[in-house]
Amino acid sequence: MVGVLIHSGNAGFGHYYAYLKNWTDDKWYKFNDENVSEVSEEDVLGQQWSGWQARSTSSSPYMLIYRKITPQAPPPIEEAEIPSQILSLLKSEQENREIRRIEREKELNSLTLNVFRNRLQLPVKLFLSSHFRQNKSKLISK
Question: What is the pLDDT of residues 20-40, one digit of tens each?
Fold first, then answer.
């Protein structure tokens, strides 16, 4: 077992938190909103869960998470096995990421000058050429 998801409260309201085991350091952690703290295995596995007692609220594990350990790695997932809507979403995210990268690069390779003429301020955006970027230090130092 590598995780326990907990609901504290009742059917009308409550709070969720989780105990998860880190595979790399073999330690348990409690994830409670923005707070993450290390806990002992006894804290997780030795809990006396209140369950469905005659109290107005309770804390109960509602999901246990297990990790299947096999001697060999599972076979890679073929693209044909991935639902088309997931592939479409991934493609859209990749395209958006590329658009943002290009916009960032344009912003980094541009220079905005404020030109004042006849009491007017005119912003002028210059896009720097690769020649300028390569020779920038030489041009500026002269």
Answer: 999 889 899 999 998 999 999
